[in-house]
Design brief:
The structure holds 2 protein chains of 2 kinds. By secondary structure, chain A is mainly β. Chain A is built from 7 helices and 57 strands. The radius of gyration of chain A is 31 Å and the shape is globular. Chain B has 2 domains: about 300 residues, 7 Propeller (Methylamine Dehydrogenase, Chain H); about 90 residues, no CATH class. In chain B, strand 1 and strand 2 form a beta hairpin. The mean pLDDT of chain B is about 85. The chains are: A mainly beta, B mainly beta. Chain B: GO terms for molecular function: RNA binding.
Amino acid sequence: MVAAGALRVVRCGGGALRGARAVFSADSKYLLCASGDFVKVYSVTTEETLRLMGGHADLVTGIQLNPHNHMQLYSSSLDGSIKLWDFMDGIPIKTFTVGCKLLALYTLASAGDSVFVVIPKKGERDTFQLVSVKLTKGAGQDLEAKELSVVLDGVGASPKQIAFGREGEYVVSVKEVNLQVYFFKRKLLNRFSLRAVKTKGGDNQFSCVACHPTEDCIATGHADGKIRLWRNFHHRKEYTYSTLHWHHDIVMDLAFSVEGTRLLSGGVEAVLVQWHNESCQKDFLPRLGSPIEYISMSSDGALCCTLHTDNRITIINSNLRFSRSIQGLIKSRDVKTGLVVDPRTKALVMNGEPGHLQFYCLQSDQQLFSLDIVQRQYIHEAGLKQSDLVKVAFSAQGTWLATVEEREEVTDPELELKLWFYEEETQSFKLNTRINTPHDNHITDMSFRDMGELEDDSLILVTTGRDCVFKVWVMVEDTDPEGKYAQQSVSWSCDFVGSYHNYQATNCCFSEDGSLLAVSFEETVTVWDSVTWDLKCTFCHPPGNIRNICFGRLTCSKYLIGATDYGFLCCWNLLTCALEWSAHLNIVVLQPDPLSEHIAAVSWLSKESSLFVFKPNEPQPIYIQRNLCKEKILLAAFVPRDEPETTGSEKYLWLRRSQLLFLTDTQELMTLSTKPLEERLTPSSKQLAVEESLPVTPFSVLLGKHRRQQPQEDTDLGKLVVHNKHEQASPAVRELLHTPAHVLPSASFLCPIFINSLLISKENKSAEEVANEVEMESEKTEDDSDEEGDVTEMEQEDTSHMELLGEVTCKLSKSQEKELRKIRKMDYSWISAF
Amino acid sequence: MGEFEVHRVRFFGLVPAGVRCLACQPRGSRLALARTDGAVEVYNFAANYYQEKVIPGHEARAVESLCWAAGDRLFGAGLSGDITEYDLSRLSAARAADGGGGPIWSMAANGTGTQLAIGCEDGSVKIFQVVPGGIQFERNLDRRKGRVLCLSWHPSDTHIAAGSIDIFRVIDIASGQTVQRIMVNYHVEKVKRECVVWAIALLSRGTVVTADSFGRVQFWDWQQGTLAESHTVSTSAVLSLAVAEKEDSIVVGTSTGATYQLQLLPVKLGGSEKRWVRTKPFQHHSHDVRAVAHSPTALISGGLDAQLVIRPLMEKVQKKGYDAVLRKFTFPHRRLVSCARKARLLLFQFSQHLELWRLGSTRETGKDGEVLPLCRMPEHLVQLKSKGPEHIYCSCVSPCGTWLGYSTASRFHLYRVRCDGVSLRKV
């Protein structure tokens, strides 16, 4: 293992958001999501990832707000601990060690300091029980929580299969075809079961459960798409249920609205269905992109969010309108294209939604763009063969994009090669050439000749196929000047077909200067002259097929590296046509850095991935890290850095200009970082603005917003006048920009203030003048809101006074200012009571 | 075992008549059923839903409504405008009295069974007193425009609810005045179609339940004139409605053939607040469910597809047995076919005519289950139309095939059949 201060493996995106339902903060400003081993905090308004809270050693399986303090969050994990977080500051407050795997977490306001978790039953496999855990109040940070009491036996492992009823009076658990209800007060356990046999194509298996917030009604989702609403379930015999049916396949999740008048359901159809008042009336929100996994409601009922199987989060208004979507790295079924870096945007490009190519921005952890390659409607149906994207290649400047799609059929694959040209005007790729059946069998590899500085006609695309040939495609001028494609002057056509002893071509690679092409044919690597298409030489290292090849770069461009199936990494010298060195390593990923001569290789041996970084001219690797991560690494890519990293250590010079990224089999994106943990987290660990007193009614929200706005603007002014020397945008301006447009006053009103704030004021402006200005401003607002009545006016006067106070004390320390602000807030509430 | 020739008789084209209305005997164990051809049947719950009695139909007597009054007296009323009392011992219509308001669409007996109310085409609701040996006109209640399609008495006999097209009204019995008139199509945005109140029930707590042609079951507080709850159970019309005696369950029948149960359930466990909830759907019928009834332990529905379905409520049935089985009466429980064994003739009975057929025959023999070729096709010999408006009650053919008899409620006819020339002669 590496010493302290050495490279660390850091997750930077992807990962499964599928551990648990998302949770809205109490003021619906933030969305909390379990993502792999982390808890992510998103801003609902800006879709940004505000915070990443790490600390669990395994998958986070449940997150719940602390019912007694809405600023705190409980999270449970498979590592057997429950953590209490202050999610506003991102600080872990307490860790409770339970000691066995925790599969789901539930909190109840009425349960005191106990929480409920699902744990595997001791001594029995695949049986789980719901237990309540007493979280002891202790002084230290790490506490033991050993007081477990079993509530229900034989529950399901999924967090969707347990729900707590109205005011925590009962708990419902569903598993297979059985439903059990346990009443806490009466200590009564009722079991109901449905018929297990599948009649008329129906499948009665339960999939999820939700409880009505105010009435005694349980909604259950079933594997055949039915929703049953159970009532009267305290009677063993006189229970009754009604059925709602729209979904054609399993109901993945259910959620009641806050008042319980609406029921939301979602499934694989990617349609959110809203049922009114438990009747058959329903509304739909279709085309959400991918199957819905979890549905959660905000506590004020204004928002709802769906988590999808491809890690997308969709936020939906209460009137069932799509509001926004948070998409990081979209999880596709299979990343067949590999990790490709778009030279233009430096974005990571790979399979996204079915048939789409996603452009993922590493810096903002957001999807930049999704390009529809297949351009066919995706139909969700089990066993249906879909066309999918399998290969992607960019030309050096990013002006051309080549994609290969195939329909997954074993015998006769339907192949299509598409070439896309980047249009500056529309800032997107436009389809230029479509080639049907470029090869008779699967295409195994594809690469452009990388000669950035040369002219366009040197651009060559090589594809290799399992039909034992490689083909060279070149651009040709269109000879049809007055046709309707007159402005499209170029298209692509095949120029040369090469083969070698009727072996399947597996990989291809151009040398850095573009003069040589290496194509591997099963066991043999062939090197071709890219001008005359003559076979120059062949290399072979039996036994085993060639898995990866690449040329060395810069000073090492005379070397060709290849990895074989039988676990050899070979380096051939192109000048002497001889093997320079070889190493016994089971290489799965071989990735050259485009900006340096370093090559990264990832080996997979005895269930651990190891990273080797070497230069082809030295047989000794310059960096080795064993046991890189516990998942298997499938793909890797070097992404050029915007500015070279200044790293002290000589050892990590290879990371100076590029960043190395890995994609694991769980589709988590990892990178290597030299910085220590704290430093890396600093940009994100800014203080979140906290609304400490919760608005209660929509009216008070409305009024409060108005009230808040004015002092805010006043502070904007004041602060900016004082601090406008600072280069970075002041937090006030940022606040202004981050506030949704519809809650801001009219632009004409804001404009002078905003422009004033951007102007550089005279340094010698006295505090009095500032105060005057503020007063004027407040007078103006008073004029605006004359019709609002006396109370508001009085408050505004108050505001200006307070503001004056704030102005005078603006040189006080931050904490004092905070105190003041608190006092001001208290003052408001006191007044509004009149 | 001997050898049998099995005839596949596919030439009996009986079209059964649909179920028009059902009436449960209050606190009794009998169910009366009227079919669209005017036939009335009586089933006995106690005897395993045995079909006790059949009163054959009559051309001029279309029964729209049936009700039990004064214990076990059965009355029927129909579009002919007459109220008919049935003689259940002689299986015939005993007495008929003219309603005096044109075609009668609905009839209801009060809780004690002493009074009958009828709803007529001309919009009047009339009260008849049930007296020994017949009925006696008592009074007219407030008359408004629009045919009265359904009626329901309040259990305490103080009010009566009458459903009509687009409206329903509640009439005070003592004064005879309309005390509340409620438009049911008020909440529908596009009132292009008329909204027909097909069924109504007045509950003891002052709730009026209406089932209308927009597929809704609505609960009204008639004193305030407000809509309490509305359940859209179907996209097509709700045609029938029946309330359990305890008033905690309602069954409705729709024109798609589905029946639904609505139950009065507590909103919170142990709480006193209750709400009607649509619970179980049943799809037993292929056509309109024109009639439903709610017995203490079962939901009973009859449709235009001529089926009578008795669906027991599992939670009300104590032990597993005959009572807990779903029953469907799909074919007539009467002998409609008689056979002349020697002459190889079959006599089929229809409501107003008889058909005599000769069976086909074959000379060949074959194995089990084999279909033998016919050397002589089945032959339609005679079609005999009955005279008069009465429907045939029973019929028979003698084993030798020379005598053929049938009877109606009032007459018996005997015919002699000559097979050689195929001729009939009335004896």
